[in-house]
Design a protein that fits this description.
Largest sheet of chain C: none
Structural class of chain B: mainly alpha
Number of helices of chain C: 13
Transmembrane segments (chain B): 12-37, 64-94, 106-123, 155-179, 200-228, 264-284
Number of helices of chain B: 13
Helix content of chain B: over 70%
Oligomer: heterotrimer
InterPro entries (chain B): MetI-like, MetI-like_sf
Largest interface: B-C, 102 and 90 residues
Strand content of chain B: under 5%
Number of domains of chain C: 2
CATH class of the largest domain in chain C: Mainly Alpha
CATH superfamily of the domain at 62-257 in chain B: MetI-like
Distance between the termini of chain C: 34 Å
Organism (chain B): Phyllobacterium myrsinacearum
Main location (chain B): membrane
CATH architecture of the largest domain in chain C: Orthogonal Bundle
GO cellular component, one term (chain B): plasma membrane
Distance between the termini of chain B: 26 Å
Number of strands of chain C: 0
Shape of chain B: flat
Order of helices and strands of chain B: HEEHHHHHHHHHHHH
Strand order of the largest sheet of chain B: 1-2
CATH class of the domain at 62-257 in chain B: Mainly Alpha
Number of strands of chain B: 2
Structural class of chain C: mainly alpha
Radius of gyration of chain C: 23 Å
């Protein structure tokens, strides 16, 4: 009796399982500020397309990545639109996992996309995902602190100049740290910064035969420079700071210099969120002896998985979310400074945007300078910039990132970290069949 | 007579649970076993092939493997140590009559209801953060250099968070056991002039041994697979200082998307878990018999 | 004399007890307070404890970004559903183990517990493939099934230890009276076992509510419970302490309140046979 009652109760609870209606688009997206804003503005889309309903799955970056990758690789078919990075797009497109976006709206204007970004999301001339916002990396610094310390940061600084300025700006008694850099382990966290830094020091991940290069002097130079600088002028806890943690530190006025993604510029200059909004200066990503500004290039893009039955509606939404009209919509509601940056040439030609966003020109310069087909001065068998565009990189990059994070935390020496990185990368590349 | 019939009925009553659990165990296990002999990377479909024990070889010779094994044991052991000792002390306090006892008990059990992800986020960002965290503020208040928890003592920090979540569980079970201790026995011991400490050692502790065993057994099962706390706070680092076996497999499965490697790791973990279970039952199982 | 000592010790233990209770509860209290601060006040040094401008802004922000009630409903359905089915399976099994044990009973119990030791990540892909083929991805039914299986060993074990405490003589007497098996369970066993069943149920609702691996990895939009809701706040851009606190408060409040209200029932049977 009891058992039966319980069973009945459970069964009726289960009967509540809902069924998806044919025109519901399930969109997986990352919880970054620009995406959250898009989610809030979707009324505009649903008003124009009353037959399409939107379901959002907003997740933190790492969780999102593992969710969508598992789903697309097993053809689970849970999503109609996925937010993916420039790392995934070419790899997935080659597997036939993404639909080419050939049904975008007429006024989408593909030619307006920044060439570097467009190339990054195209395979064989076909667009496989539509960029939502794009970024490179640059130096952001506190003009007031620089002045107080009596240093100037040129528009094209070298790492030595950055180091000198950072040390002079540091005043630990007032919790002011000269430089904040990523230290949290992860291929998209500290390794993005460190790979770009290594590029600017002339180092490379692999030689032409896919042998790892962590035993070379360039890497040692780059990593030692980073660890020493952070020890002297960085904040405590740097080895667990990623983009978000550093952003929070910079916004609360605790960092002198922060070198990170250009997209951060609109957050640190937003007076609602930032205490230092009117004091930020910008410079290009530093160089370390070779003419290379790191070649950082990234975009978050909307793509349509091959398994979806709602490709048409999905492309309708993508057109709405990534065309020029969307930027105007954001501008009208939240101001030009909050428009998703880094995808369209027309935005940077817009006088109003230039006025509202003092970082517009340098962002554009940084993005156009990034060359993902030749990330570093020495010849390499891979493309990419702050990452290496092979499927194994997520795993290898994160494992190497852990070694370097340990070097930063001081639980390992720079040499030990490099040896560890060399050994584990060699192992994984052998397992992956790259090293014969 | 009746027993035969009862036996048969008992078997029928047990079978749904046993059969379902068996299927739940065996189907994924067999699939995992099968995958563990394949080269199978989700990101490279079409390259699946039989590769014998290669996945096992790579997993077991991973330089991180033994560290991860050690970390797993330290994490389980450390948390058990804190929760059992802390739980006994806390139970002893809560067993005394005092004002507002009921409310204090509510406060003490609260952490048990908090999702692991939430507690890790709160501890990391709001308490242990070396710049904005509350601990750092307290340290500076007294003129100390704030501790950089996740860099200087990463594994201990995680143990602390996990122990905070499990302390209420241990306390509750130990408290219930303590309260069942015969009042007369206690009084008799007091009459005999036994001091508080000897009363605790000779009377209370033996009485609690069964409850302690239960706490150890249940917690071990959950602690072997601690994952969310590590993912949120340290990502297994710095280096591999907080990588446990579960996290190592996670790296294979959801960063490399190497299903073959992760499957081999999963099988190894099952074997290890069973070894732990075997010793656990040998060591403390007697306590549960009777 | 004796009374004076008691009062004094009572005062001392009041101080000790409240201090410890406050310290243990503090992280939760701090989260709760922070959820009413502005983002700026949340990271202010020195920290502001009670005297700040209380605001509901964070809750409004969180609610405008995600449909809390959908996630909440999913959490309720999944945790209650899996617990009820688990009980339905476990009660007969535990009864059989407790009242007609065989030599293998202990082994079966230990085997059941050992199934919990398999690391979830290791079997994610196999299970994901099964779920895909059966159309269970992103359904509450699928999650109920998984969580039932995950918690079944604990349920069986808890009930077994509890049932074992019920004196066998009572059953003998009932049998003598010619009570059928069904009657034996309904009229004799169940009333005695209610506290044990209640606390098993509560504990398993808590465990299912807080399960964060499968609930996150097997769902998308429709069946995602509060664990997925939290995953969208775990590290957004910029200052997020206050918003995170608000989301955390919303995610843990229901289960915390339920736990507090039912703590007597929870504790009464939460002995795992450890009391004797």
């Amino acid at each position: 009796m009891l058992t039966r009652t319980l069973l009945l109760g459970a069964a009726s609870a289960l009967a509540m399982v809902s069924f998806a209606n044919a025109e519901t688009l399930t969109i997986a997206t990352v919880n970054n500020g620009d995406m959250v804003r898009m989610q809030k503005l979707t009324d505009d889309f649903t008003k124009k397309n009353p037959d399409i309903k939107l379901e959002w799955v907003t997740l933190e970056e790492n969780v999102l990545r593992q969710r969508v990758t598992t789903d697309i690789a097993t053809k689970g078919g849970q999503y109609d639109i996925m937010t993916i990075g420039t790392y995934e797009v070419p790899i997935w497109a080659k597997q036939g996992w993404l639909l080419p976006l050939d049904g975008l709206a007429k006024d989408y204007n593909k030619d307006d996309l920044l060439p570097a970004i467009r190339d990054a999301v195209s395979v064989d001339g076909k667009l496989y995902a539509s960029p939502f916002y794009g970024e490179s990396a640059m130096v952001m610094y506190r003009k007031d602190l620089a002045e107080k310390a009596g240093v100037t940061i040129p528009e094209k600084p070298t790492w030595d100049q950055i180091a000198e300025a950072a040390k002079k700006m540091t005043d630990k008694s007032t919790e002011t740290y000269g430089i904040c850099l990523r230290g949290k382990a992860g291929w998209g966290e500290n390794m993005a910064l460190l790979t770009a830094t290594a590029n600017s020091f002339g180092a490379r991940w692999f030689d032409e035969k896919w042998h790892p290069q962590f035993d070379q002097p360039e890497w040692k130079h780059a990593l030692k420079f980073y660890v020493d600088l952070m020890k002297e002028a960085g904040p405590p806890g740097a080895s667990s700071n990623g983009f978000n943690e550093n952003l929070a530190l910079f916004q609360t006025g605790k960092c002198g210099i922060w070198i990170d993604a250009t997209v951060a510029a609109s957050f640190v200059t937003n007076p609602k969120e930032s205490k230092v909004a009117d004091k930020v200066g910008y410079a290009l990503f530093p160089t370390g002896g070779v003419e290379n500004h790191g070649n950082w290039l990234w975009a978050w893009n909307l793509g349509v998985p091959a398994g979806t039955k709602k490709a048409e509606a999905a492309q309708k939404f993508i057109s709405w979310a990534t065309d020029k009209a969307y930027t105007e919509l954001v501008a009208s509601k939240e101001g030009w400074a909050n428009v998703p940056p880094g995808t369209r040439t027309s935005l940077y030609a817009n006088a109003e945007y230039q006025k509202a966003a003092p970082f517009a020109k340098i962002t554009l310069d940084a993005m156009t300078a990034a060359n993902t087909s030749k990330p570093t001065v020495k010849p390499v068998p891979y493309t990419g910039g702050q990452f290496v565009a092979i499927p194994e990189f997520q795993g290898i990059g994160t494992a190497v990132g852990q070694q370097f994070s340990a070097a930063l935390a001081g639980s390992m020496s720079v040499d030990q970290a490099l040896q560890g990185a060399q050994a584990l990368t060699t192992r994984e590349m052998t397992k992956g069949g790259y090293i014969k | 007579m009746a027993t035969l019939q009862t036996r048969a009925t008992a078997r029928i009553m047990m079978s749904p649970a046993v059969i379902l659990l068996f299927l739940w165990m065996i189907v994924p296990l067999v699939m995992t076993l099968y995958f563990s002999f394949l080269r199978y990377n989700l990101l490279m479909p079409g390259t699946e092939e039989y590769i014998g024990f290669l996945n096992y070889q790579y997993f077991l010779t991973d330089p991180a493997f033994f560290t991860a094994l050690a970390n797993t044991l330290i994490l389980v052991g450390g948390t058990l140590l804190i929760t059992v000792i802390g739980g006994i002390l806390l139970a002893l306090v809560l067993d005394q009559p005092f004002f507002g006892q009921g409310i204090v008990r509510l406060l003490v059990i609260a952490p048990f209801f908090v999702m692991p992800t939430v507690s890790a986020l709160v501890w990391k960002n709001m308490l242990m953060h070396p710049v904005n965290g509350l601990f750092a503020w307290i340290a500076r208040l007294f003129g100390f250099q704030p501790i950089d928890w996740f860099a200087q003592m990463p594994l201990f920090s995680i143990i602390l968070i996990v122990a905070w979540q499990w302390l209420p569980f241990a306390t509750l079970i130990l408290l219930t056991a303590l309260q069942s201790l015969d009042g007369e026995q206690k009084e008799a011991a007091e009459m005999d002039g036994a001091g508080a400490i000897s009363r605790f050692i000779y009377l209370v502790l033996p009485h609690l041994s069964r409850a302690i065993t239960v706490v150890i057994l249940i917690q071990t099962i959950f602690l072997l697979s601690v994952f969310a706390e590590i993912l949120v706070t340290t990502n297994g680092g710095p280096g591999i200082q907080t990588t446990n076996i579960t996290y190592l497999i996670y790296m294979q499965a959801l960063l490399q998307f190497d299903v073959g490697g992760a499957s081999a790791g999963g099988i190894v973990a099952v074997v290890l878990a069973n070894i732990v279970a075997f010793f656990l039952i040998r060591l403390i199982g007697k306590n549960l018999e009777r | 004399m004796a009374r004076a000592t008691t009062t004094r010790s009572k005062v001392i233990f009041t101080v000790i007890g409240w201090t410890i209770g406050f310290l243990i509860f503090f992280p939760i209290l701090w989260t709760f307070l922070t959820s009413f601060k502005s983002e700026g006040a949340a990271v202010a040094t020195p920290p502001q404890f009670l005297f700040f401008d209380w605001t509901l802004e964070n809750y409004r922000e969180v609610q405008s970004r995600s449909d809390y009630f959908k996630h909440f409903t999913n959490s309720v359905v999944i945790s209650v559903g899996s617990t009820l089915i688990g009980l339905a399976l476990a009660i007969p099994a535990a009864w059989a183990m407790a009242f007609s044990p065989t030599k293998r009973t202990k082994d079966i119990l230990m085997w059941m517990l050992s199934t919990k030791m398999m690391p979830a990540v290791g079997v994610l892909v196999p299970l994901y493939l099964i779920f895909r083929d059966w159309g269970l991805l992103d359904t509450r039914l699928g999650l109920v099934a998984v969580l039932t299986m995950i918690n079944l060993p604990i349920i069986v074990w808890m009930l077994y230890t509890y049932f074992k405490e019920i004196p066998g003589e009572i059953l003998e007497a009932a049998r003598m009276d010619g009570a059928s098996l069904m009657k034996e369970i309904v009229y004799v066993l169940t009333p005695m076992a209610v506290p044990g069943i209640a606390s098993t149920m509560l504990l398993n609702i808590i465990l299912a509510w807080n399960e964060a691996f499968w609930t996150l990895n097997l769902t998308a939009a429709n069946a995602a419970p509060l664990t997925a809701f939290i995953a969208s706040y775990s590290s957004p851009e910029g200052l997020f302490w206050a918003k995170l606190s608000a989301a955390s408060t919303m995610a843990i409040a229901p289960i915390l309140i339920m736990g507090w209200f039912s703590q007597k029932q929870l504790v009464r049977g939460l002995t795992f046979g450890a009391v004797k």
